[in-house]
Amino acid sequence: MNTRMLIDGTLVKGAGLLDVINPATGKSFAQAERADETQLEDAVAAAKAAQPAWAGLGYEQRGALLAKLADALDAIKDDLTRLLTSEQGKPLPQAMGEVMGGIYQLRHFAARRIEPQVLREDEATRIVEHRTPLGVVAAVTPWNFPFLMITQKIGPALITGNTVVAKPAPTTPLCALAIAGAAADILPAGVLNVIVDDNDLGGKLTGHPDIAKVTFTGSTDTGRKVSAAGADTLKRITLELGGNDAAIVLDDVSPAEVAPKLFGGATVNAGQVCLAVKRVYAPSAIYDELCEELARLANEAVVDDGDKQGTQIGPIQNRMQFEKLLGYLESAQADGTVIAGGKPLDREGYFIAPTIVRDIADDAPLVREEQFGPILPVLRYDDIDDAIARANDSEYGLGGTVWAGDVERGAQVAMKVDSGTVWVNKHLDIGFDIPFGGSKQSGIGREGGDEGLHAFTQPHIVNIALA
Ligand code: NAD
Q1: pTM reported for the whole predicted model
Q2: What CATH number does the domain containing 459 carry?
């Protein structure tokens, strides 16, 4: 698989190399080419030079090239799946789901069009809204979905006529470089540029004067920096940031039926999902039984290398996140009662035993902060309005779930949860045609849906006197 960066249509070596660690072993298994500031400048300049001609191609030709890229990735999907598991850690079936989702996403955006809208037409006037591209887009992504996050950004940016400089997270550069390898033979030079850094070029890229828009997914702390970096040149910015999603369980559900759904939602991708279940609120009437069911599932879960058949939960993606989680395990022991897990696995790699914590206070760090790992606090409530207020008492507002026997009652509770998406009796049902994003400090703007696509364009109003 390609390990070179894509700048101005050429796969290039970098100023340096970056070791890529397999989190299941903690050892380097590949090296990626890494950029310096000069190569960042080259990438932005190439994207700027390529943009007018790319926009000039129009939707049909751009869509055809994006579909061709999707086909090229489809042809190597098995290799991409293994690569994704090696660099990110998730079990192979989840990796295959991510790769197929990313390819489907490119096909979805390849087929999207924004038609001009006649806003007003009478004898004297015709006013038409065209949506024009913004220019060069910087796409900055995190390490939890290294394939899907890239396609999620380049698909809508490119179909609408922008060019892109993409920068993956330093611990997972290989999927982005694999996409670059496929794109090098398909897209015109400069349309897509992919550079790699060691956490040192994100600020330069997102603050660069020739970048018109930043589409960023990552932590809320870095999102603030991206926002500040864009202020000087008033960039358009979409921020998909952290979450601390609450699952609110109502008193008319069966604990045995709902527990596997909660556990799955908290531990998919080892809990490293912005929309993972990060805290559970359960009524006193079923609290003990639900805790017991969750603890049983945690004790039975198969935690192992993602490329082993039968693995449910893989390693934590990187050492820094693994060490952060060790801190949350300490806090869980101090602030609550650990009823399953509670420690790292005694083996190489970055593995944490899935952990269930009960009787923990609302102000414990594990409850207030985004843990981003398989450690789940379960909180008790007696009054549903109190549970909703506690769920909403957070700087975050990305997602959330409500679990109800009476679906209409569940929908009423969902209306009161202050988050961008709230699911009732399901989880992680995300469609590219549905706007997705956060309220409060979980983000600004939306991806997906018409809103997400329009965010890569600006209105261009043509107002004509007919008489
Ligand atoms: P992070 O913020 O540390 O890094 C994200 C990206 O930003 C990386 O590519 C990094 O190199 C880059 N970066 C670092 N410093 C920068 C700077 N000053 N300016 C610009 N870019 C910079 O996030 P992470 O640890 O890689 O990812 C985990 C976080 O991402 C979690 O908080 C998670 O909730 C969030 N996330 C959100 C969504 C969403 O859609 N809302 C999806 C996935 C992950």
Answers
A1: 0.97
A2: 3.40.605.10
Q: Is the model's pLDDT at 101 over the cut of 90?
A: yes
Structure confidence by residue, pLDDT tens digits, 2-55: 999 999 999 999 999 999 999 999 999 999 999 999 999 999 999 999 999 999
Q: Is 255 in the pocket of ligand 1 (CB under 6 A)?
A: no
Query: In CATH, what number is assigned to the domain containing residue 354?
Result: 3.40.309.10
Instruction: Please report the atom of ligand 1 found closest to the CA of residue 206.
Output: 20
Q: Are residues 206 and 76 in the same domain?
A: yes
Percent of the chain at pLDDT exceeding 70:
100
Give yes or no for residue 199 CB within 6 A of ligand 1. yes
* Alpha carbon of 424 to ligand 1 centroid (Å): 28
Q: Is the pLDDT of residue 467 over 90?
A: no
Active site residue 274: yes
| Ligand 1 and 202: CB distance under 6 A | yes
Residue 390 lies in a domain: yes
Taking the CA of residue 223 as reference, the ligand 1 atom at the shortest distance is 2
In whole angstroms, give the CA distance from residue 219 to residue 241: 5
456: in domain = yes
> Counting Cβ atoms within 10 Å, is residue 58 exposed (0-12), middle (13-18) or buried (19+)?
exposed
Residue 157's alpha-carbon distances to 139, 161, 231, 279, in angstroms, are 9, 7, 21, 34
Both 282 and 416 in one domain: the answer is yes
The total number of structural domains in the chain stands at 2
Whether residue 453 is found in the same domain as residue 395: no
| pLDDT at residue 17, as a whole number | 98
For residue 242, report the distance from its CA to the centre of ligand 1, in Å.
Answer: 8
Q: Which atom of ligand 1 is nearest to the CA of 203?
A: 19
420 and 371 fall within a common domain:
yes
- 37 belongs to the catalytic site: no
Give the pair of three-digit tokens for residue 42.
């080259």
- Rounded Cα gap, residues 82 and 102, in angstroms: 15
**341 and 207 in a common domain:** no
Q: Which residues of 135-150 are buried (b: 16+ CB within 10 A; e: fewer)?
A: bbbbbbbbbbbbbbbb
Across all residues in the chain, what is the average pLDDT?
98
The domain of 258 spans 246-424
Is 399 close to ligand 1, i.e. is its CB under 6 Å away? no
Based on the fold, state whether residues 288 and 382 are members of the same structural domain: yes
